[in-house]
Amino acid sequence: MHSPEHPHKSDSQIPSTAVKGRIFDVQTFSIHDGPGIRTTVFLKGCPLRCVWCHNPESMETEPDVGFIPAKCIACGQCTLVCTHEGHAIVDGRHVFQRGLCVRCGSCTTECPTGALELAGKEVTAAWVMSEVEKDRMFYERSGGGITLSGGEPLMQPEFSAALLRLARDSRLHTAVDTSGYAGHTVFDRVTALADLVLFDIKMIDERAHRRLTGVSNRRILRNLQRLLRDENGPKVWLRLPVIPGQNDSPDAIQNLIDFCASLWGNPRLEAIHLMPYHRLAESKYQEFGKRYLINGTHPPADEDISAIIRRFSERGVPVTRS
Amino acid sequence: MPTLGRDEEVIQGAYGIDLSPRVERLRDYVLNDATWADHYAPRAWLVAESMKQTEGQPPLFRQAAALAHVIRNYPVTIREGELILGYQQHESFRGIGWLEFDNLTNGERREALRNHVQNLSIPDEWKQKVFDAIDYWREHPRVIPHFWPQTPDYISRDTRAGVYFGGGGSEGHTVPGYERVLRHGFHAILEQIDGEIARLQPWKPDDQKRKLWLHSVRLIAAAACELGMRYAEELRALATRESDPLQAEEYRRLADICERVPARGARTFHEAVQSLWFCHLIMGWEDGINANSFGRYDQYLYPFYAADREEGRITEDEALELLEAFHLALYKSYDVQQATIGGQNPDGTDATNELTYLFLEAMWRVNLIRCLSVRVHRGTPRRLLESAFRLIRRGGGVPFFFNDEAIVPALVEKGIPVEDARQYAIIGCVEVTIPGKTNPHAVSHMMNVAKCLELAMNDGKDLATGEQIGPQTGTLADMPDIEALWNAYKLQLEHFARHAVELSNQGDLAQPFRFPLPYTSILTDDCIARGKDMTDGGAHYHYHSTCAIGLPNVGDSLYAVDQLVFKEKSVSPDELLEALKANWEGEEREKLRQKVIHRLAKYGNGNGDVDRWVERAAHHYCDHMATYTTPHGGSFHAHLFSFVWHLDCGRATNATPDGRKAHDPLAYSVSPQQGRDVEGLTALMRSLMTLPHEHAAGSSSAIIEIAPKLLDEVSLDKVLDVVQTAIDKGVGQMQFNVIDSATLRRAQENPEAYSHIAVRVSGFSMRFCLLDKTMQDHIIARTKHEEM
Ligand code: SF4
Ligand code: SF4
């Protein structure tokens, strides 16, 4: 349904450094996105629409305008620059009329307080690498490197491939955090450049997957199978989000366990992580004017997570909490 | 659920559930026995008693005689179960313990003191003695001679304006050479003094002076030789009265120890620890608690421990219990009696030993926060960092880390031979000394560099009052570029540095008249050989360390001015000055301030363009202080440390171009201004790495606030990798404060000031995430757990 059409399809002649892509964050000291200390590059755009997505600002390819009322001092600066009447000061209070906004970003660079922020800027691979290089000493000490996350890195294959190539050339450990949802050519081409793939498995049941993420998981599972078959391919860590009330029914968990048990033992598969739901994304949904469909969900209790871990281990599959 | 880490199991067993009954009891004494807390009273009357007898004698002699009298007569108190005997002067500094410094000709003050004494839980007969002492000092007020009759006007004006302050004195803040007493006893010191006396040639004028000094300090050494004996006698008396044979046996065993030390060299670990404690008690009687510190006790106690273990005289558990008892004897609710563990040997190899770990373990088990510093270097075992972080996780910010990779070269740069430099130890909070050899004049004066920048922008005039305080170096409007402001800043700082050095040197020269330190001196090389007090040039090393306060604000401000006024030209110099004078008040000015805070780079985020300014300011300070000399030929060591004075200096400083409002606190030491470092731990470290730690012989200091989540079993390893990288790259000093629920409550009220609080979750981008209730719950969930 969503065909991941890359907006900046680039000529393969241009050097990796010059390839451009759209990102919304470069986060240093990322310590749960692969081995060691890493810098995670968050690429913008995702073909999935998981109801629990914790990076709502990542979903769309277009830039997103975030607005934090608590930081706004109603100075009116934004009203002066917006040519689409996106902002108004009414009775001394600022009103953001998101419906009128065309996401040009002008107001976000003018807002003095940081109440308006733009998620999604176009950058070159060289620029990203210069940011990533700053923490080299920490990667070297810890065995870390760069992780591409998002969003879905595979939605910007040229850019992802360029980043991975550059990182490899400068001897950084490379990881790609993916939903696995991509055409197999793209999938193979990008993952082949990574040392590690962090592969999300959200649900096994196809209909439920479609309902909760907007896409079928057939492609995803097929890509995973292929990835694990490739003897020279990257290492794989499976990551299983646990979202109370969404994908944690006994059946769903049982399916996951069966599925993982069938894979465990594969030499490429290094680890399986449970990723319990957390509520940190709530404020981001408000900020970006998106509806948080699972508002009010509580993180799973520690006991519930340990119970799941126990069930996995009874099947001989060691699973840890991320 | 992740399996509980080892540490958590211990936390849940709060207060070390497996403490021995003895240690439980000692812990209870410390926390709940009020009589102990008031035990500082006797010094008051003992000094007065002695003074009555020595009237007409030279002041130094009288002071030494008074201390000897205290040592000989301080009441001996022994409670059942104690392993380390003797009570420390408990009052922190100069209260009734130091009546000679009080203004007792003032009736109100006398009344206040009397009331204070009346409420102490001490025997009535003691109270009467203190009252008599108060009367004595009323009738015989101590005349304190000043080296210079008056502080010059310009210094009074500068300090009133809050540009610098301090006194240059050297009471407190030392690490005496206790090691020598542990090895050889006070008898050896007495013999050395007698040897020097025998060699005197009193017809020589210098030797006249030495003679007085040597005869005075001799009184102290001789009294110190008898201190243990008084305890031994009391213990033997207790043993005779004791019906429980085991307890009686213990008393006799302790009596044997006190008979030996501190008069003679210790033969066992227990004797060594008791000897150390006696040495330190006397220190408190001379000079108060006052940041007099222990130095590298894991090093100098180790030979005694190793020999006992070798001979099978002690088990590890027994040693641990002893250290726990020692820890408890030392405990104060506010404590600056620092101790140092770990680090390098004089030859540069790693010095960590079993005692290093045992000290950490004792602190962990007793579970009362006290000052402790771990020296680290490239070769520090990972295990030591892990043990240290186990304590850090519990909160309280201890232990601190001091990096040999920075401090040793800084000391060497000051002319201290590398073998001695590698023996450095920490005093008080964050001050550096070479133990047993130094008069370090720690925190000799404090320079408010942010105020210097304020004056540099405004022709030497205070921004709020317009008072001319500094030299006329022009206003921002006259300056063609940022270099002009930088030069004006340097001129201001150097002008005030001269005055501040004058203040320090004046204090230094006055010290031997004001309050010599005869006891500290006999434990400090080369005082006895030179026959001179450490306050009078007797010490082998003497230097002053002086603090620069507000460096991060200066750097952020210079960068902001450069961007706004000179590069973007979006703000005119006058507009900026007016905004600062108006404390950013007014709509447009607030907008500008918000822009400065949110849109301009800040120190602490690994951004080289702005970090460079902090580095430049810090470097300039270190270099500039190196141009001055102390009265005894020492140097001034830059100390990039603010203690709590960044609050005072902040109060004295008007609005600054970094977006800070008038009177708000300045940055702590070399930490970023609160809330301005938002890029995470590695970025912060990169900023810290740019600073000239290896030129700051007084040490730098940085508090790093860290969410408890980052110290859980999964993340700790990575934090340790960051710390080790920082050590490799020469970051001088680091303190990790684990964010607790109280901090988070404050954060709820003022989220902006806490935007540096970060968590990391797999695949989650923090950038647009607010420090809101949800996030606080996320952090606090863990914090509560830790605080159980
Ligand atoms: S510019 Fe920013 S602070 Fe000013 S009114 Fe607009 S959103 Fe609010
Ligand atoms: S992003 Fe552009 S269109 Fe949208 S509110 Fe801001 S200025 Fe207006």
Would you spell out the secondary-structure blueprint of this structure?
The complex is a heterodimer of chains A (322) and B (788).
Chain A: E1 20-30, E2 38-43, E3 64-67, H1 77-81, E4 87-90, E5 93-96, H2 106-110, E6 116-119, E7 121-124, H3 125-133, H4 136-142, E8 145-150, H5 157-169, E9 173-178, H6 184-191, E10 196-200, H7 206-213, H8 218-229, E11 235-242, H9 250-263, E12 269-276, H10 282-287, H11 302-314, E13 320-321
Parallel strand pairs in A: 2-8, 8-9, 9-10, 10-11, 11-12, 12-13
Antiparallel strand pairs in A: 1-2, 1-7, 3-6, 4-5
Helix pairs in contact in A: 3-5, 5-6
Chain B: H1 6-12, H2 21-32, H3 34-37, H4 42-53, H5 59-73, H6 107-118, H7 124-139, H8 153-161, E1 164-166, H9 178-199, H10 205-241, H11 245-260, H12 269-287, H13 297-300, H14 302-310, H15 316-330, E2 340-342, H16 354-366, E3 373-376, H17 382-393, E4 400-403, H18 404-413, H19 418-421, E5 425-427, E6 431-433, E7 438-439, E8 445-448, H20 449-457, H21 482-514, H22 518-522, H23 527-530, E9 541-542, E10 544-549, H24 551-567, H25 573-581, H26 587-599, H27 608-625, E11 636-639, H28 645-651, H29 681-689, E12 703-706, H30 716-728, E13 733-738, H31 741-749, H32 773-787
Parallel strand pairs in B: 2-3, 3-4, 7-9, 8-10, 10-11, 12-13
Antiparallel strand pairs in B: 1-8, 4-13, 5-6
Helix pairs in contact in B: 2-15, 4-5, 4-7, 5-10, 6-7, 9-10, 9-12, 10-11, 12-15, 15-16, 16-17, 20-21, 21-27, 24-27
Bound molecules: iron/sulfur cluster (2 copies).
Describe this structure in words.
The complex is a heterodimer of chains A (322) and B (788). Chain A has helices at residues 77-81, 106-110, 125-133, 136-142, 157-169, 184-191, 206-213, 218-229, 250-263, 282-287, 302-314; strands spanning 20-30, 38-43, 64-67, 87-90, 93-96, 116-119, 121-124, 145-150, 173-178, 196-200, 235-242, 269-276, 320-321. With 322 residues, chain A is α/β, with parallel strands linked by helices. Chain A has a nine-stranded mixed β-sheet. Chain B has 788 residues and is α/β, with parallel strands linked by helices. In chain B, 52% of the residues lie in helices and 6% in strands. In chain B, helix 4 (42-53) packs across helix 5, helix 9 (178-199) packs across helix 12 and helix 10 packs antiparallel against helix 11. At the A-B interface, strand 1, helix 4, helix 10, helix 11 and strand 13 of A face helix 26, helix 29, helix 30 and helix 32 of B. Bound molecules: iron/sulfur cluster (SF4) (2 copies). One iron/sulfur cluster (SF4) is lined by residues 65, 81-82, 84, 86-87, 101-107 of chain A. One iron/sulfur cluster binds next to helix 1 of chain A.
